[in-house]
Design goal:
mainly alpha; 86% helix
Length: 85
């Protein structure tokens, strides 16, 4: 296996692991935002909690999009590395 193909395999593995971490962060952020919304006071009772919850949703959305992009990139790189073998 050439050095360039090996580097593509390692890069696709790194992208996949980073994508999984970002997808996990997406789920955690969404759950934290939902938990703030369903807390005992309820939505709208404390505007500061709503602002924090929407911050969690925004961070979750960004990490979800980044995780999907990294997964797609890892899939393509792995495909090209397999072809190049």
């Amino acid at each position: 296996m050439t050095r360039q193909v090996r580097a593509m395999f390692l890069e696709s593995l790194f992208f996949f692991v980073a994508g999984v971490i970002l997808a996990s962060f997406f789920i955690w952020s969404m759950v934290q935002g939902m938990l703030l919304h369903i807390s005992p006071l309820g939505p709208g009772a404390d505007p500061a909690k709503d602002t924090i919850a929407f911050g969690y949703y925004f961070v979750g959305w960004i990490s979800g999009v980044a995780g999907l992009a990294l997964y797609w990139q890892a899939k393509n790189l792995f495909h090209y590395a397999e072809i190049s073998k």
